[in-house]
Design brief:
alpha+beta; five-stranded antiparallel β-sheet
């Protein structure tokens, strides 16, 4: 069992895809709520949550693909949503295409639900290859992850880190899915077109109206997680790693704080001391000794000795 938050969920789902994992990812949220995401060789093919509105039965009702009496009987069956979905196709009650109209919104809704939580625990249980009532595919899986990120809880700290990245954003060198087939909103396409290696995340966000800025950053983050865009220079080894990024950010922030404290302490000391004491030379030091001490101190406090923020 792994402790985690929704901040790392996108990367967890991404890794399950690249590892071609088959099984169930259980995500636990507030007040004993939970979501089960089912993967077949790394691709989403089913999902169900503990809340009534996140269950297969509820989506079957709202879809209107079956008469209400039939749905009522199905709801009474002592089976899981997964078993019911499989049985509906196996017994020719629904065609695979008709059932897909239920499964797709069900999976998408549960992925969004999981991202919107401050996830407390996650666990992946390996299983056998899925039944064939729904055709899992990478485009649907990636679209679900991108849409989930748009509902991510606790995005504020990540947004702050991404905005401070000096690296430029560009399309990945090994994009393995047809990006043009992703279900993008118009401004998402514009954001993607700006990922040409000339602009940072902050610069791209500034091109959009303020109300679309955070969404643009979430979208770029999702593209980075999925390997569709990358940073130049790279910000982590291999696939995008938020843990590496946050570690680097915290290290840089700590250095900033140390440098700023040092500059302030030195400035206060200079204001209280006479010049020769500041330079660390005796009162009777000659001009050559003073110049040497000044040069040493100038180098010690040169701009290149401090972080950009502190300098």
């Amino acid at each position: 069992m792994e402790q985690g938050t929704s901040l790392f969920l996108a990367e967890l789902m991404r890794d399950l895809y690249f590892q071609e994992s088959t099984g169930v990812l259980r995500l636990e949220g507030p007040q004993d709520a939970a979501v089960d995401l089912h993967f077949d060789r790394g691709m989403l093919y089913f999902a169900e949550g503990s809340r009534d509105e996140d269950r297969f039965d509820a989506m079957l009702v709202s879809s209107g693909v079956l008469p209400e009496k039939t749905v009522a009987r199905i709801r009474q069956l002592p089976r899981t949503g997964l078993e019911k979905a499989d049985a509906l196709v196996a017994k020719s009650v629904l065609t695979r295409d008709a059932l897909a109209g239920v499964i797709r919104p069900l999976v998408e809704a549960n992925v969004k639900r999981a991202f919107s939580w401050p996830i407390s625990r996650s666990e992946f249980t390996a299983g056998q290859p899925a039944n064939t009532f729904f055709d899992a595919d990478v485009l649907f899986t990636f679209e679900c992850i991108l849409k989930g990120i748009m509902h991510m809880a606790e995005f504020g700290p990540l947004e702050e880190v991404l905005l401070k990245l000096p690296a430029r954003v560009r399309l990945g060198t090994r994009v393995f899915i047809p990006v043009e087939k992703l279900a993008l909103r118009p401004h998402h396409g514009y954001v993607l077109s700006r990922a040409d290696g000339t602009m940072s995340v902050e610069e791209i966000a500034l091109l959009l109206p303020s109300e679309e800025g955070t969404e643009a950053i979430q979208f770029l983050y999702g593209l980075a997680v999925l390997g569709i865009v990358e940073f130049d220079p790279p910000i982590s080894e291999g696939l995008f790693s938020l843990r590496q990024l946050l570690k680097s950010h915290h290290e840089a922030s700590s250095r900033d704080q140390r440098d700023i404290a040092r500059i302030r302490e030195t400035a206060g000391r200079i204001a209280r001391q006479d010049p020769r004491t500041v330079l660390g030379v005796p009162a009777d030091a000659n001009a050559a000794a003073v110049r040497m001490a000044y040069t040493r101190l100038k180098h010690e406090f040169g701009r290149d000795q401090f972080s950009d923020r502190a300098a």
